[in-house]
C-alpha cells in the first residue's frame, strides 16, 4: 500500500515501525508514554496471522533494545480469532512470552460485541499464565459492569473507553449523556479496585471527573494513566502530564491504515462528530 496519505497522517504514525518509533521518541521526550498498535484485523488465513505475530515479535524486541516508555496493543482477530480459538491463543502466548521476558505491557484491544466474550475469556486464560496482559472494555455496553468484576478477579489491568463500534440498543447505551454517566460510574469502581487503570477518553467532563476523584481518594500514580489517540488534543495531553498524571498516547501504524481511519470517521455517526469536534479543540 505504500506510504500513508497526507489526510490520514494526523491519526496514523506511519506505515512501518521505523516511522512509528520516531513518534515514540518525540512523545517520550515530552514524558508521555506510548502504546503502539500494528494496524490489522479480521484476518482470515493462518499465514497472514503468523505474519502479524512476527511483526509483534520484532516490535517487542525493538522496544526492548533501546528502552522506551512504550508498550503494545493487539486485536485478537489479527492473531486468528476468526480462524480458530486455539490457534489464536498459541499466537497470543508467543507474544506474551516475549513481553513477559522483556517486561513490556500488552493490551488486548476490544472489538465489536461478536468478539467480547471470546476476548475476555482469552484474557482470563492468559492472565493465569502471563503478567503482561491488559484488556480494553467499553463503557457503553450493558454487560461491562459485570465484565469489570471478571477483570478485577483476573489481574485488574484494564483500559476503559466509551466504545467506537455501532451496536444495537439491546447491547449498548445509545445516548452520549448516558454513556458518560456510565463511564463515571465504572471508572470509580476501577480506580478503587483495579490494579492498573487506563482512563481512555477525550471528554473534558470525564477527564475532570477522574482527576478530582483521583485527588480526593489519593489514588497512587502507579495505579492509573490517562490515554488519548494520536492526532487528538495534543495541548490537553501536555496539560494532563504537567499536572503530574501519567499520560499515554495510542499510536497506530501499518499499511492497513484504511480500516482504522474509516472506523474513526464512519463506524458510528457519533465518531464523525467526535473527530470534527476534537480537531478544533486543544
From TrEMBL:
Binding-site residues for FAD, renumbered to this chain: 110, 138, 162-164, 201-202
EC number: 1.5.5.2
Cofactor: FAD
GO molecular function, one term: nucleotide binding
Reactions the enzyme catalyzes: L-proline + a quinone = (S)-1-pyrroline-5-carboxylate + a quinol + H(+)
Domain of life assignment: Bacteria
Pathway this chain belongs to: Amino-acid degradation; L-proline degradation into L-glutamate; L-glutamate from L-proline: step 1/2
Descriptive protein name: proline dehydrogenase
Domain Proline dehydrogenase: 24-275
Keyword check for Oxidoreductase: yes
UniProt keyword terms in alphabetical order: FAD, Flavoprotein, Nucleotide-binding, Oxidoreductase, Proline metabolism
List of residues binding substrate: 75, 263-264
Biological processes, Gene Ontology terms: L-proline catabolic process to L-glutamate
Cofactor details (free text): Binds 1 FAD per subunit.
Amino acid at each position: 500500500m505504500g506510504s500513508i496519505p497526507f489526510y490520514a497522517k494526523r491519526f496514523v504514525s506511519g506505515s512501518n515501525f521505523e516511522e512509528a518509533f520516531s513518534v515514540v521518541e518525540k512523545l517520550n521526550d515530552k514524558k508521555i508514554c506510548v502504546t503502539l498498535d500494528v494496524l490489522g484485523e479480521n484476518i482470515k488465513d493462518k499465514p497472514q496471522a503468523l505474519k502479524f505475530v512476527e511483526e509483534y515479535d520484532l516490535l517487542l524486541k525493538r522496544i526492548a533494545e533501546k528502552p522506551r516508555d512504550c508498550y503494545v496493543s493487539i486485536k485478537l482477530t489479527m492473531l486468528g480469532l476468526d480462524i480458530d480459538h486455539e490457534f489464536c491463543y498459541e499466537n497470543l502466548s508467543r507474544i506474551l512470552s516475549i513481553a513477559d521476558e522483556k517486561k513490556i505491557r500488552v493490551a488486548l484491544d476490544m472489538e465489536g460485541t461478536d468478539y467480547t466474550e471470546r476476548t475476555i475469556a482469552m484474557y482470563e486464560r492468559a492472565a493465569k499464565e502471563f503478567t503482561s496482559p491488559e484488556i480494553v472494555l467499553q463503557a457503553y455496553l450493558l454487560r461491562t459492569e459485570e465484565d469489570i468484576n471478571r477483570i478485577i478477579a483476573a489481574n485488574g489491568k484494564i483500559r476503559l473507553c466509551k466504545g467506537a463500534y455501532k451496536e444495537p440498543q439491546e447491547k449498548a447505551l445509545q445516548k452520549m449523556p448516558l454513556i458518560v454517566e456510565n463511564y463515571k460510574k465504572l471508572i470509580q469502581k476501577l480506580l478503587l479496585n483495579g490494579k492498573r487503570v487506563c482512563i481512555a477518553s477525550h471528554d473534558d467532563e470525564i477527564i475532570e471527573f477522574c482527576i478530582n476523584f483521583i485527588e480526593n481518594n489519593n489514588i497512587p500514580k502507579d495505579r492509573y494513566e490517562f490515554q488519548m489517540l494520536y492526532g487528538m488534543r495534543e495541548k490537553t495531553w501536555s496539560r494532563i502530564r504537567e499536572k503530574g498524571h501519567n499520560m499515554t498516547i495510542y499510536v497506530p501504524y501499518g499499511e492497513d491504515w484504511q480500516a482504522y481511519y474509516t472506523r474513526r470517521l464512519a463506524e458510528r455517526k457519533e465518531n464523525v462528530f467526535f473527530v470534527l469536534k476534537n480537531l478544533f479543540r486543544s
